[in-house]
Amino acid sequence: MTGKSRLLAGGAVSFVLAAVAMVAALPSSAGGHAVRDTSTLIISRTVDPAGLDPAEIVSTGAGGGVETFIASYERLFDLTPSGKIVPKLATSWSVSKNGLVYTIHLRKGVKFHDGSLLTSSEVRFTWQRIVGINGPAAQYWRPVKDVVAASPYVVKIVLKKVDPTLILTLAGERGSYIGPDEACVKAHESKPGDWAVDWMATHECGTGPYTLTNWQHGQELDFQAFQDYWGGWKGRHVTRIVEKIVPAAGTQRLLLQQGQLDFLGDPPATDVAKALSKDPNIKVVTSPTTTIDQFTFNMDKKPTSNPLVRKAIALAFNYNKAIAQAYRGWAKRVYGPIPSNIWPAIPKSWASGYRYDPAKAKQLLAEAGYKDGLTLNLSGMDTGTWKPLILSLQSDLAKVGVKLNVHFMTWPVLFAQLQKPKGQKPFDMAAYQMWAAIPDPSDILMWWHTRAITVINPGWGTRTTDKWLDTSLSTLSKSKRATLYSNVIKQMEKDVPGIWIDQPENIAVMRKSVGGYQYVPYYNGIIDPYQLYKTS
Fold first, then answer.
1. Which CATH number do you get for residue 516?
2. Which of 463, 435, 437 is nearest to 449 (CA)?
3. What is the domain-level CATH number for residue 427?
4. 303 prior amide bond cis, ω within 30
5. Helices marked H in 91-190
6. Domain-embedded: residue 199
7. What is the value of pTM for the model shown?
8. How many domains does the chain have?
9. Which among 7, 280, 446, 536 has most CB atoms closer than 10 A?
C-alpha cells in the first residue's frame, strides 16, 4: 500500500469511527436504527450557534443563531409564505395619519419562560435593551424615537420619520424578537446596567414554545416544551428539540439515513439532496426563496469600469447551462436585482440584455478596445453551487477571449474584500448572494445605495439613485415607492453593475416521518419547530 493509499484508508477509517461514535451518542430504538420517539425532533447543525441573544445575533446559517433561538423567542408579527402579515405576540395595529405613531395591541396571557407576563413595558424594555447594547439588532430600530407603554397591553411606537417598512421589519427575521424580559435580565447581570449580555449569549428568556435546558458546546442543544406556552400543546407538536452538532456532511447524511437524525438543519449540496431524494425513507422539500445569485463588477477599476466590458460579459455567459449544472432543476432564471416574488416587476427588456450571445459579446469587447482579449480576477466561494456557476462563467468567457482568474475563498474573506472602500476593492468581479428578508424591495435594493459601498455594494450609485432610494422610504404610498424603485432598476439595466443569474429554491431534507413543514421565504434558513410533528 502506498503512502497516499494509507492516508486515504486512514481517512476513511476515521470517518467511519466518527460516524459510529456519533450514532452511539444519539437516541435510538431497540434495534439501533430509526428513532421511534415521536415526541423528540433531532436536527443537525454543522457548528454551534454564535450566540442566543436576539440583540446580538441577526444572521442565520452555519454559525448564525437565529435558526436556533427561534425555538425560544417570538416576534410581534409573523409573515406567511405569501408575505402576508399575521398576528403573533401582537393581535392588531393601526397607524396615525401622519405615519409617525403605530399603536399595537398585545396578546394577553403570554408568559416568558421565567414566569413574567408579556406587557407593553416588556416591549419597551426590549427596545431599550437593543438600543442600549447597540449590537447588530439596533440597526433595525433606528427609525424609532420612542416606545411608549400606553396601557398594560397597548404599546405605541413613535418614529423619528415615516417608515413604510416598520411592521414588516417587526415581522422579519432580523432584530425583531421580544425578550429577554426585564426580571430575567436584572437577575443575570454581571454588573448593573450590562444588560446580562454574557449570560444571554448562552441562555434564553423568551416567550416561545421551547425552553433551552442544556447546551453542551460542540455536541448538542436540548430544548423542552414550555408547558405555559400561550399557543398551547393541543394538536400535533414535538415536545423536545435536540440540535446535534455534526460537522461532517457525510456523517449527517449517514445519520439521517439510519434514522438517528430527523432533519438536516443546514441544507446539503444539490447533488447530495438529489441522491437522498431517492431514499424511500427520506423526503426532500423544495420551496421558493427571495435569494438571488449574482456576479457583480468592480465599478472603479479598469477594465470593468467600462460599461461595454460589463455588457459584453453579461452576453458571454450561458445562463441556462450554468444554472442546470449548479442546481439540477432547483433554480430559475432572473433578469434583475430583485427576486420574482418581490415587487416591482423587472421590465421584460432585461431579457435581451442578459441573453447568451457570444458573438455580440466579442463585438462589444472590440468596441471597448479589447479585440485581443483581457484578463479579469473574480473572488468567490468554493461551495456546492457557487463553484459550478463560477467555473461555467470562466469557460464561457474563455470562448470570447477573456481569461478569468478565479480566487476561491471563505465568506468572511470575501466579505472583507467587499467592505473595502471605493477604489480599494481588489477584484474585478465578485460572486455572492443577496436576499430580501421582508416582502419589500427596500430590503435588497438598499445594498445598492452608495453608503453600502463599504458593505456589499461593488461601487455602483450616484446622488440621483441614492435620492430615489431614500425618498422611497419617506412615503407610505406603495405606488410612489414602486415608481422610485423602478427608476433605480432602469438605471441598473443601463449601467449593468452586475449579472443576475438565478433564484434558487430552498432545499429541506428530512425523514418521511416528519410532518408540518412549511418554508417562509423571508425567513432564510429558519425551521419553525412548533409546526413540526412526527409519526411512527
1. 3.40.190.10
2. 463
3. 3.10.105.10
4. yes
5. 120-133, 166-170, 182-187
6. no
7. 0.86
8. 3
9. 446
